[in-house]
């Protein structure tokens, strides 16, 4: 175990490089202050050690300027840490356009992934290098946390809501995936790998497995099988509104509130339709709680996202 | 007048210091109570903001007449408590006992009415848990309302019970002539506690019973 | 007096030897010893839990104990150490013993309430230990929902009841201390003549009063949720699991300042005494304690940067977390500056003070890493956090506690401990501590998550180093237990002021009489008046009782 002792994680994402830079700034500041304090204490302790039992040192002055200096200088160094850190946090919270959308469902004690093209994975996530990947995640039970040290990303995965994270891998290889929010007995075994491939290998991998239905196609099948299409007709003649172009649109509710129809709204609406009724429509949509799993919800949402404003047309992936 | 109670406890230098310490202690204790109830108020606020319709509908199931009566009962009990303190300041032993007993009686009335309300809730399947029934679509979120209702009024009732116990101890001490016009800090300090419990109810009543009643 | 003989006159220890006189005492000094006995017991219980954990982590498979057992161990280790050792340690032992003496009072404001606090503490401990003995709890000391409220199959309700109960011990102690400090100072003891130990315990009491009740209500809600399936934190019923985190951390962040402020107060007493100089920047240190307590209530969200709160909330909490670091830094600089041109003695308490300064500097600086949003994403919930808080809680707080115990041991017991053993133990503890926890910073950045009983094989070497350090640390902690006990029978008699320190507590005999002061002292001089004191010579006006 002493050979190849790792002391630093691999740097395998665009975020990792940025984060390490800030980390090293923090290390540098820390080293400076630790050395400063340690050497001052050691120096004073030795230089001014008690030489006679009845020694009586004279009081020293306590200049206010010194108090102010050692309050303001650390504060200034910390302002840099804060601003830089906040800047990075914004970067980590805003995925670029054109990201590949991958659905993630955590449950005790495994990670389930679905690619938009359809392939599903458990505990392993294959991704192409150099392409932004956006993860939409939820949990089926308790709070988990999606953590890839090599990418320096982490996000708690909470039941009952969607959270998102994104990364862009910069180096091919296989990297640890850990669950980092204690979730019960299998917490330490809820691990896996993110396998970063060059684009050609990734395409081959995508096509290689058992032919699978794309996520949006699976969602469309569910949309019809569960009866959604009987009320939500594309030409707006059904009892419910047409869902063409619904994703990301503002929606007005009967309470007067206007909300944005994002992933969380759509999920809530399918599970508890009575809570937020769209203005102008009666409260008659039945709940699908218990009839649909988190994976299926993500498929339907992927389908809804693909519905553009033009009537009935959707892009098949 | 019993002399032994007019001498301060050994750790204090003067009776006045002892009184001041008692007052400060009760105020600090009330600050902790504010934080304690505050946590529940915060949780209530979060959910009411998230589910306004559900909370309004659930609130309509509460018996506002009984709640309002209880509010009146508690306000009167604070009056009798204040009168007890006033009587203690004048050394009127019978009046002290009378007003304290009135406060206790009103407190018991409050608890009785509260108990009645709870019984009605059980009968109507409004106690959170497996037997909870509420018209859809608000079944889940109304249960959250009732969770807070029972937790907050239950905690409040517990504090009332403690208050009644403290008042009973005061009645006994008054009967034993332990209070003088100069030395009746216990009555004042317990009064402070009682008023606080009253004020908590003044907040609970509108927040729980009066959501959306104007419609 | 040339020869100091073992104290034969009546003092608070020999005034009665019956068990009843101890269990029904209202003397703050005896209550302090009741706390000392109990927290020492809980410390070793919590340490055993940690020892088993570290042994389990020697191998990547982590199969010394089952996963369920390991999960229970880390939960009970956290609960025991935080609620039954760290939080009550300095306040319950040194605070109780010294506050009345330092301010010139005969006792605390409410002595019977003080005893009740100890019994409540023990009752809470009984509940929690019973929960541990009957299967334990496996939620982590943080009790995150919905795992704790719905999914866990362990003794959650029993445990949260125990912690709920012990919280009241803190609340009542805080209340008692605040009223005592406000209302019972001796004539002439103005606020700015108070020892800094009192300032830090006052700040600690503020947190006890305002923070603990919120923990209480959070625990009540978990208990109710588990018993009645209320749905407050159950997303399937419309509840919000993150709400629990807000309620929990609103208390539990200030709680960490409860755990460090008293230790800082001890260091503020040790440095002036063993430099024989007044503290540099008294007012700044006093106000820093208050600032830490106040700002400490505003930073709880830094535990939740990746939990799902908004980016803007994260920024606010990050900025405030940096702000709260400033008063701590001010203290470190002031302590260091006090040494300048002092007369430094390397007695055991001073060695602990040096250790505190060094390890608190490291622990505090690594806190900045966690306050930095962009970096916290990576290190949150890893061993980096574990290393950070152990540098503060063990490297600093426990060393502060040990430093204080050694410093005031002569006053409390009338005996001197063997100085050579004292220094050796301090050194062993310092070295063992660093070997245990420094590798964990590296492990954390590598990505090893918390609460894992097994791990990828490449992490083994660092884990082995950490376990090796833990065994050294264990030896280090056993030494004081041994020689302090030994000193009770064989230690040299101490005399009133063996260290030549300022402070009212040193102007009474060792051990003090039950009433502390025969005559209420009148304070006329500034605190830490070392330069006006005859160096090394015990002050003249000791209040002595007539010999029995």
Total separate domains of chain A: 2
Helix coverage percent of residues of chain A?
25-40%
What is the count of helical runs of chain C? 15
Q: Return the domain count of chain C.
A: 1
| Total count of strands of chain C | 0
How large, in whole angstroms, is the Cα Rg of chain A? 27 Å
Largest sheet of chain A: 5 strands, mixed
CATH names the topology of the largest domain in chain A as Immunoglobulin-like
Name the CATH homologous superfamily of chain C.
Cytochrome c oxidase-like, subunit I domain
The level-1 CATH class of the largest domain in chain A: Mainly Beta
- Low-pLDDT residue spans of chain C: 536-548
Q: Which structural class do the helices and strands of chain C define?
A: mainly alpha
Read across the widest sheet of chain A, the strand sequence of neighbours is 3-2-1-5-8
Weakly predicted, low-confidence segments of chain A: 311-317
Span from first to last CA of chain C?
A: 19 Å
* Element-by-element helix/strand order of chain C: HHHHHHHHHHHHHHH
Question: What report would you give on this structure?
Answer:
By secondary structure, chain A is of the alpha+beta class. Helices cover 35% and strands 20% of the residues of chain A. The longest helix of chain A has 34 residues. Chain B has 215 residues and is an all-alpha fold. Chain B has a single domain, classed as Up-down Bundle (Four Helix Bundle (Hemerythrin (Met), subunit A)), CATH 1.20.120.80. In chain B, helix 1 runs parallel beside helix 6 and helix 3 packs antiparallel against helix 4. Chain C has 15 helices and no strands. The two termini of chain C are 19 Å apart. Chains B and C meet through helix 1 and helix 5 of B and helix 6, helix 7 and helix 8 of C.
């Amino acid at each position: 175990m002493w050979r190849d002792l790792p002391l630093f994680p691999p740097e395998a994402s665009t975020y990792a490089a940025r984060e390490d830079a800030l980390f090293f700034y923090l290390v540098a500041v820390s080293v400076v202050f630790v050395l400063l304090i340690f050497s001052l204490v050691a120096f004073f302790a030795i230089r001014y050690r008690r030489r006679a039992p009845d020694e009586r040192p004279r009081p020293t002055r306590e200049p206010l300027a010194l108090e102010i200096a050692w309050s303001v200088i650390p504060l200034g160094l910390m302002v840099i840490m804060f601003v830089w850190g906040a800047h990075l946090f914004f970067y980590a919270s805003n995925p670029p356009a054109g990201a590949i959308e991958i659905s993630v469902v955590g449950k005790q004690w495994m990670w389930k992934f679905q690619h938009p093209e359809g392939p599903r994975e458990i505990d392993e996530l294959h991704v192409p290098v150099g392409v932004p990947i956006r993860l939409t995640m939820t949990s089926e039970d308790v709070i988990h946390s999606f953590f890839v040290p090599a990418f320096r990303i982490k996000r708690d995965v909470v039941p009952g809501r969607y959270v998102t994270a994104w990364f862009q891998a910069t180096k091919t290889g296989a990297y640890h995936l850990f669950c980092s929010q204690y979730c019960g007995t299998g917490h330490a075994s809820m691990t896996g790998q993110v396998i970063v491939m060059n684009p050609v290998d990734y395409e081959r991998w995508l096509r290689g497995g058992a032919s699978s239905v794309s996520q949006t196609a699976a969602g469309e099948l569910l949309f019809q099988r569960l009866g959604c299409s009987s009320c939500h007709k594309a030409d707006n003649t059904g009892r419910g509104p047409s869902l063409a172009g619904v994703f990301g649109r503002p929606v007005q509710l009967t309470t007067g509130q206007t909300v944005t129809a994002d992933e969380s709204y759509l999920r809530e609406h399918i599970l508890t339709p009575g809570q937020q009724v769209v203005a102008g429509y009666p409260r008659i949509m039945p709940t699908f709680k218990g009839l649909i799993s988190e994976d299926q919800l993500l498929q339907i949402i992927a389908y809804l996202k693909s519905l553009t404003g033009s009537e009935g047309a959707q892009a098949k992936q | 007048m019993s002399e032994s109670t007019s001498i301060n406890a050994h750790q204090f230098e003067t009776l006045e210091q002892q009184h001041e310490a008692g007052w400060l202690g009760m105020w600090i204790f009330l600050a902790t109570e504010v934080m304690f109830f505050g946590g529940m108020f915060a949780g209530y606020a979060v959910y009411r903001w998230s589910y306004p319709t559900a909370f309004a509908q659930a609130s309509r199931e509460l018996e506002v007449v009984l709640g309002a009566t209880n509010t009146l009962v508690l306000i009167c009990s604070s009056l009798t408590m204040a009168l007890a303190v006033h009587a203690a300041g004048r050394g009127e032993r019978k009046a002290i006992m009378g007003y304290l007993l009135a406060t206790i009686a009103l407190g018991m009335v409050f608890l009785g009415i509260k108990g009645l309300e709870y019984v009605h809730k059980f009968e109507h399947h409004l106690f959170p848990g497996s037997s909870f029934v509420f018209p859809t679509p608000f079944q889940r979120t109304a249960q959250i309302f009732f969770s807070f209702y029972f937790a907050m009024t239950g905690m409040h009732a517990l504090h009332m019970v403690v208050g009644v116990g403290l008042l009973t101890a005061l009645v006994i001490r008054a009967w034993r002539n332990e209070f003088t016009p100069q030395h009746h800090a216990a009555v004042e300090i317990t009064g402070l506690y009682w008023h606080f419990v009253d004020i908590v109810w003044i907040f609970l009543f509108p927040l729980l019973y009066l959501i959306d009643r104007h419609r | 007096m040339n020869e100091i003989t073992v104290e034969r006159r009546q003092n608070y220890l020999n005034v009665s030897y019956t068990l009843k006189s101890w269990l029904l005492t209202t003397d703050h000094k005896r209550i302090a010893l009741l706390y000392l006995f109990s927290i020492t017991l809980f410390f070793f219980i919590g340490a055993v839990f940690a020892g088993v954990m570290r042994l389990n982590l020697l191998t990547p498979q982590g199969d010394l104990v089952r996963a369920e057992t390991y999960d229970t161990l880390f939960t009970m280790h956290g609960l025991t150490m935080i609620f039954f050792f760290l939080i009550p340690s300095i306040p319950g032992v040194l605070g109780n013993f010294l506050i009345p003496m330092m301010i010139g009072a005969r006792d605390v404001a409410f002595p019977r309430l003080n005893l009740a606090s100890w019994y409540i503490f023990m009752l809470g401990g009984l509940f929690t230990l019973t929960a541990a003995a009957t299967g334990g709890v496996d939620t982590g000391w943080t009790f995150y929902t919905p795992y704790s409220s719905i999914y866990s199959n362990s003794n959650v309700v029993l445990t949260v009841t125990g912690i709920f109960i012990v919280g009241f011990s803190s609340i009542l102690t805080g209340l008692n201390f605040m009223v005592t400090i406000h209302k019972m100072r001796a004539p002439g003891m103005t606020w700015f003549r108070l020892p800094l130990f009192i300032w830090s315990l006052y700040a600690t009491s503020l947190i006890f009063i305002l923070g603990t009740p919120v923990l209480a209500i959070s625990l009540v809600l978990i208990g109710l949720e588990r018993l009645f399936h209320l749905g407050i934190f159950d997303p399937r019923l419309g509840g919000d699991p993150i709400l629990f985190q807000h309620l929990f951390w609103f208390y539990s962040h200030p709680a960490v300042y409860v755990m460090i402020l008293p230790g800082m107060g001890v260091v503020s007493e040790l440095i002036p005494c063993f430099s024989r100089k007044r503290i540099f920047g008294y007012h700044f240190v006093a106000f820093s304690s208050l600032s830490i307590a106040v700002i400490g209530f505003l930073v709880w969200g830094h535990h939740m940067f990746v939990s799902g709160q908004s980016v803007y909330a994260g920024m606010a909490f990050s900025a405030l977390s940096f702000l709260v670091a400033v008063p701590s830094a001010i203290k470190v600089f002031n302590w260091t500056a006090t040494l300048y041109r002092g007369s430094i003695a390397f007695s055991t308490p001073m060695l602990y003070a040096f250790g505190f300064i060094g390890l608190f500097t490291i622990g505090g600086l690594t806190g900045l890493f966690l306050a930095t949003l962009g970096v916290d994403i990576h290190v949150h919930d890893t061993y980096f956090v574990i290393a950070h808080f152990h540098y503060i809680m063990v490297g600093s707080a426990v060393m502060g506690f040990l430093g204080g115990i050694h410093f005031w041991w002569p006053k409390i017991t009338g005996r001197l401990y063997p100085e050579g053993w004292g220094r050796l133990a301090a050194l062993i503890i310092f070295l063992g501590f660093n070997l245990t926890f420094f590798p964990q910073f590296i492990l954390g950045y590598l990505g090893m998550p918390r609460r894992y009983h097994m791990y990828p094989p490449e992490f083994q070497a660092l884990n082995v180093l950490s376990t090796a350090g833990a065994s050294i640390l264990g030896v280090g902690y056993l030494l004081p237990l041994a020689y302090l006990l030994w000193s009770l029978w064989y230690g040299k008699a101490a005399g009133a002021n063996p260290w030549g320190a300022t402070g009212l507590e040193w102007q009474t005999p060792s051990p003090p009489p039950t009433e502390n002061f025969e005559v209420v002292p009148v304070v006329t001089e500034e605190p830490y008046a070392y330069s006006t004191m005859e160096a090394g010579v015990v002050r003249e006006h000791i209040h002595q009782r007539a010999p029995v």
